[in-house]
From TrEMBL:
Protein name: Flavodoxin
Gene source species: Fructobacillus parabroussonetiae
Cofactor: FMN
Cited Pfam families: Flavodoxin_1
Domain Flavodoxin-like intervals: 8-148
Length: 155
């Protein structure tokens, strides 16, 4: 890694495009901080790839009444079997507050899987109602900032 430049992978799942917008915001913030970033759709990604990076951001949606994204089920299952003890991660995602008790539950489930894999969460989960607005982007900046700072300490 040249000049200790941090590397990151942003893995997202989306139906409506909202989570891709969340992922794109995270990527822009990371690039502003000089982080080398790869963007990946969850069904096209293997959890083992995360081991190559300093940072990971998972951006899953929650379907219906708390269900994980169908296209991300294999990724989710395989995640617990990967050793990611050198990885710092953050989780953000779009949901719909209409679903109240089920709002963004997939974020918590992916968080548990990342912890089982030994990865270190840098900041609170960022839950976004539908499409990310200005306040959401500020929360994403905080998520990225905290994650980058922790990853630098762990290098």
């Amino acid at each position: 890694m040249a000049d200790n430049q941090l590397t990151a992978q942003v893995v997202f799942a989306t139906i409506t495009g909202n989570n891709e917008a969340v992922a794109d915001n995270i990527i822009a913030i990371l690039k502003d901080q000089g982080v080398q970033v790869e963007k990946s759709e969850i069904s096209q990604t293997e959890p083992e790839e995360l081991a190559k990076y300093d940072l990971a951001f998972l951006v899953p949606y929650t379907y219906d009444e708390g269900s994980l994204p169908d296209e991300g089920l294999d990724y989710f299952d395989d995640l617990a079997d990967v050793s990611l003890s050198n990885l710092t991660y953050g989780i953000a995602g779009s949901g719909d507050t209409f679903y109240e008790g089920y709002y963004c539950l997939a974020l918590d489930q992916f968080d548990e899987q990342m912890q089982k894999a030994g990865a270190k969460r840098a900041a609170d989960l960022v839950r976004i109602n539908l499409y990310p607005g200005k306040k959401d982007i500020e929360k994403l900046k905080e998520l990225v900032n905290q994650s980058v700072q922790l990853a630098k300490k762990r290098q």
